[in-house]
Give the backbone structure.
Amino acid sequence: MKLPVFAEPLGAELDACSEVGELWTPLGDGGVRCVACAHRCVIADGSRGACGVRYNRGGALRVPFGYVARRYVRSVETNTVFHVLPGAQALTFGMYGCDLRCPYCHNHRISQALRDGPTQEHPTPMSPAALVDEALGAGCRVLCAAYNEPMLSVEWMARVFELARARGLVTAVVSDGHSTPEALRYLRRTADVFRVDLKAHDEASYKRLGGRLQPVLDSIALARELGYWVEVVTLVVPGLNQEARAIASLGARLREIDPAMPWHLNGFVPRYRLAREPSAEPLFLLMAAGSAYALGSRFVYVGNAPACAELAHTRCPECHTLLIRRHDYRTLENHLRGAACQQCGAELPGIWRPLAPASRPRDTTPNPSCELGDLGRPDRDRQERPRVT
Ligand code: SF4
């Protein structure tokens, strides 16, 4: 694993916005094991994990807390989330760092800032209350963590989401899915939606991105079991997965988990280290979606491809009535009756109305599968939190 270059002064700024985390175990020699992502880094005192933002100081794992790198208010659909409150506004925030190194990342200025060197974007200290107030003040019904890999900051996200839910917001995480059962269970107490990227069909391709396929598949299956609302995105990238065999394999794996789980085939747009590569082929996207439908997938969408605009809409899987019309990641028309097709009455899966408190998990006991280090318990270091606005 290539260790991150820690770019100053961003590194110092981020270290000031940290607190002792919860998802780690002490190893008895001053080292710790982080369990926030599938790398499961063993980190010696004074060192950092592969993501660069979680680090061991004095035998305790410090994690990002009390800031955001970016935040925008946009339609929920811009997060490629189509079956959650169509047309709602979402406040989406991002932090720094990533456990993967995708050469086409649209958000590399924050996700790869610790590896690539200086960035113009600096952290803005914020409290959970300020973030939630901002979302509600802007008329949002969804609060979403995205842009970099949010699971690196899972403790901070949980704190923000806890408050957001208490004030009526639906909470969503847009993740690379290279996660752990511990992190997914921990976050489920406060998160409603798990929007996950399934990037490649085999381990060799995932290795090029810095991760592994199996933990991603396992995370998708577990997230469904735990009751998250799950939507999956595959960015179709020439040279990585733009081939029929790759997409067929991914479709088969997803149908094994749940054929009704929405699957978005988004076309690659040249960016970052692949800025000179061609965009994804619209014809390939069209054929891949058609083939997935023919094999039993119930909701397949195509994005970033104007030639495939018809495949951004939601149709009833039973009678094929057009139910939700979208354009450019915005909902234009919604003909659902509650959660049902207005024509044949078939129920469509998704979160179509704000969630009642009773429909959400109430368990707040510590996750038994994650043995917390003494220093990792939340009350222990409350006085150490960074000053927030
Ligand atoms: S979040 Fe992942 S990459 Fe970062 S320290 Fe933890 S296990 Fe390592």
